[in-house]
Design a protein that fits this description.
Elements lengths: L18 H23 L4 H37 L1 H20 L1
């Protein structure tokens, strides 16, 4: 399970304004993954399964990019306004998240 950031709260996170859209995208991705599972269970042709895996991956990447954008616009921007160690920590945290996304 991912760790919660120092300044994040259950009711006030960077993606609060986009939460409904993000949940909708995640549900769509969940449906895609279930469809992939059915394809494998039904012995669907490998390339067709891989095509759907690619689509599901893109759907999750879209969610990740939205979350990252919201994090930068809200959490990192707020920390930058505060300055000091808080700002440095948020920039390092965002950089690490970007690195994980690039490697995935």
């Amino acid at each position: 399970m991912a760790q919660q950031g120092e300044h994040a709260t259950a009711t006030h996170v960077g993606y609060s304004g986009d939460k409904e859209q993000i949940v909708k995208r995640l549900r769509r991705a969940e449906g895609q993954v279930r469809g992939i599972q059915r394809m494998v269970e039904d012995d669907t042709y490998c390339i067709d399964v891989l095509t759907q895996v690619s689509a599901a991956t893109r759907a999750l990447e879209t969610v990740a990019l939205q979350l990252l954008e919201d994090h930068l616009a809200h959490c990192v921007a707020q920390a930058a306004r505060e300055g000091g160690d808080v700002a440095d920590a948020k920039v390092r945290e965002a950089s690490a998240a970007i690195a994980r996304l690039v490697r995935s």
